[in-house]
Structure prediction request, 126 residues.
Amino acid sequence: MKKMILFFSHSLTQAQRVDAKKSLEVENFLALPGELQQLWSNIPPYLEDLDSYLKPLKEYLLDNLKSGDVVLVQGDFGATCNIVSFVKSLGGVAVYATTKRDVKERVVDGKVVKSSVFEHIIFRRF
Prediction:
């Protein structure tokens, strides 16, 4: 059973779940445990090297990733590159979500209010 491990700071939308099942043949979604999600979502900007910081996340992948599994990786640019490389070295498939942004402007009480709606399009392989 192929799974998608989520190295992602948001919740998947229904459209993303449907697309992952259809296009990537994912049957199960695995969110990071709370403490690892906190690590992934709060990468310190002052660290010059991420190897030690990412070690618990890589250990999680070693324990949970099987060859052919998919990992959705989105976040801090350096951490993303590091994890993508690691996922590939383990035989996993690293992907990210692409979106289309629809920006609308409206006037409310004399002020211009912008809103952006993001729509999932596809998962793209790294």
Remarks:
- The chain has a mean pLDDT of 96.
- The CA atoms of residues 9 and 38 lie 9 Å apart.
